[in-house]
Amino acid sequence: FRLALIQLHVSAVKSDNLQRACGLVREASAKGAKLVALPECFNSPYGTQYFKEYAEKIPGESTQKLSEVAKECSIYLIGGRSIPEEDGGKLYNTCAVFGPDGALLAKHRKVHLFDINVPGKIQFKESETLSPGNSFSMFDTPYCKVGLGICYDMRFAEMAQIYGQKGCQLLVYPGAFNMTTGPAHWELLQRGRAVDNQLYVATVSPARDEKASYVAWGHSTVVNPWGEVIAKAGAEETVVYTDIDLKKLAEIRQQIPILSQKRCDLYGVEMKK
C-alpha cells in the first residue's frame, strides 16, 4: 500500500496551516496514498510559549477538519501532533488518527516529554507546559497494524519493541527534531528501530523554517525492515511517497528470524498498561 508523508511548512496562522494541510492530503490521496501522515505540530509553531494559545479540545476545530478530509478522500489519516490538546486543565502533545469513514481510531498522547539540555546548542523543556500520555497507541488497517509515537518517543527502544510484540508492522513517528539532534540522530534512530524489530518506520517532520524560534530538521523518512532508507525528503515543504511491501517484511523475518530466537527465559520487555 502507498504511504504519504506530508512535510508541511508551518506558519503562525492556524487556519492557513489547516487549509494547506488538507489540500496536500487531497493531493496525496489523488496519487494513490492509502495512509497519509502529517508532521508533529502541524497547526501551530513549535514552542512551549505557543502550546496554550493554540490548544484545542478533541474533538475541536483541527480534528474536525482532519475527520472531514479523511472521509472525503477515504483514507487513513495520521494527524501528526495535530494540536496541543487541552483536557481537564492539562495540555498534551497529541496525535489523532482518523479512518476512511472519518471516525477517530486512535489518540496518542506523547509519552516521553522532550526535556533536554545540550550546553551551547539547545535547551528545551516540554514539561513546563505539557503533561505526558500514559498509554501505547495502535490502530488496525486492512493493510497492517500501525503503532504510534511522537518525536522523542522514538528514542525509547522498549516502546517500539512492545509495538512489534503486539503485531505492528509499521511505526509512524510525527516528529520535529532540531538542527542539533536532527543531523546526529534522526535517521540513526529510525534505522535502529526498524532493524531491531524488523518492521517499517516512518517519520514525518515539519518543513524547515530558518526564521522560526525552533528550527526543525525536516528530512521526513521511511526505513524498511532491512534498515534501508527507501524514501527521504530534504528540508523544504514536500510530500514523500513510498510503497510499503509487507511481503518484503515477511521475507526478512524468515531469513533472519530474530523474533522467534529471543531468549525470553533470560530477558524481556513488557507492557504494564
UniProtKB/TrEMBL annotation:
Give start-end ranges for the coiled-coil region(s).
Answer: none
* EC identifiers of the protein: 3.5.1.3
Output the InterPro entries linked to this UniProt entry. C-N_Hydrolase, C-N_Hydrolase_sf, Nit1/2_C-N_Hydrolase
Any Pfam family matching the protein: CN_hydrolase
Q: Which GO terms describe its biological process?
A: asparagine metabolic process; glutamine metabolic process; oxaloacetate metabolic process
State one molecular function term (GO): omega-amidase activity
- Top-level taxon: Eukaryota
Q: Which UniProt keywords apply?
A: Hydrolase
The family database entries (Gene3D superfamilies) matched by this protein are listed as:
Carbon-nitrogen hydrolase (3.60.110.10)
Any one GO CC term of this protein is:
mitochondrion
Instruction: Name the catalysed reactions.
Output: 2-oxosuccinamate + H2O = oxaloacetate + NH4(+); 2-oxoglutaramate + H2O = 2-oxoglutarate + NH4(+)
Q: Where is the CN hydrolase domain?
A: 1-246
* Family the UniProt entry places it in: Belongs to the carbon-nitrogen hydrolase superfamily. NIT1/NIT2 family.
Protein name (database record): omega-amidase
